[in-house]
């Protein structure tokens, strides 16, 4: 299984970015997916998760109302739309495949990870 994240870049505070994560597996649609991020000098943290059907989503409190996770199972791709970006959103963003559909925010339950894409928000 390969996950390829893209869409990161440099943006000013208040701006928007959309991240994409393309999966190589044909069984992509069976799995819950998630986005995590890691800021310099900090631990990796949960950002958002989405159920296999897209019908259920979950967000970290810090991004609620600003970020939206979605997926297109026909394209084996999960997205993270990020609006009203803040400098504290800066970090490397990782997509990952979840092995437990009941729990979104626990990194150890994710078994495959993308390489990460860097998001930098300037003030």
Topology:
Layout: E1 3-6, E2 9-12, E3 17-23, E4 33-38, E5 45-50, E6 57-59, E7 67-72, E8 77-82, E9 91-98, E10 110-113, E11 117-122
Parallel strand pairs: 2-11
Antiparallel strand pairs: 1-3, 3-8, 4-5, 4-9, 5-6, 7-8, 9-10, 9-11
Please characterize this protein's 3D structure:
It is a single chain. By secondary structure, the chain is an all-beta fold. Helices cover 0% and strands 49% of the residues. It contains no helices and 11 strands. The strands form 2 sheets. Strands 2, 4, 5, 6, 9, 10 and 11 form a 7-stranded mixed beta sheet that branches. A hairpin with a 6-residue loop joins strand 4 and strand 5. 35% of the residues are buried.
Radius of gyration: 13 Å
pLDDT averaged over residues: 96
- Give a short account of the largest sheet: 7 strands, mixed
From the structure provided, what is the oligomeric state, counting identical versus distinct chains?
Answer: single chain
- Overall geometry comes to globular
Strand content: over 45%
For the termini, the CA-CA separation is 37 Å
- The total of beta strands comes to 11
SSE order: EEEEEEEEEEE
Query: In which range does the helix fraction lie?
Result: under 10%
Structural class: mainly beta
Low-confidence stretches: none
In DSSP terms (H or I, runs of 4 or more residues), the helix count works out at 0
């Amino acid at each position: 299984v390969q996950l390829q994240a893209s869409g990161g870049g440099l943006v000013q505070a208040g701006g928007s970015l959309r991240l994409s994560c393309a999966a190589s597996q044909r069984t992509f649609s069976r799995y819950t997916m998630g986005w995590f991020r890691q800021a310099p000098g900090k631990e990796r943290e949960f950002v958002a998760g989405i159920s296999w059907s897209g019908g259920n989503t979950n967000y970290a409190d810090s991004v609620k109302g600003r970020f939206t996770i979605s997926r297109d199972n026909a394209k084996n791709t999960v997205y993270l739309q990020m609006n009203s970006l803040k400098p504290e959103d800066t970090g490397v963003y990782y997509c990952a495949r979840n092995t437990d559909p009941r729990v979104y925010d626990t990194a150890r339950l994710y078994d495959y990870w993308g390489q990460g894409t860097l998001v930098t928000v300037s003030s």
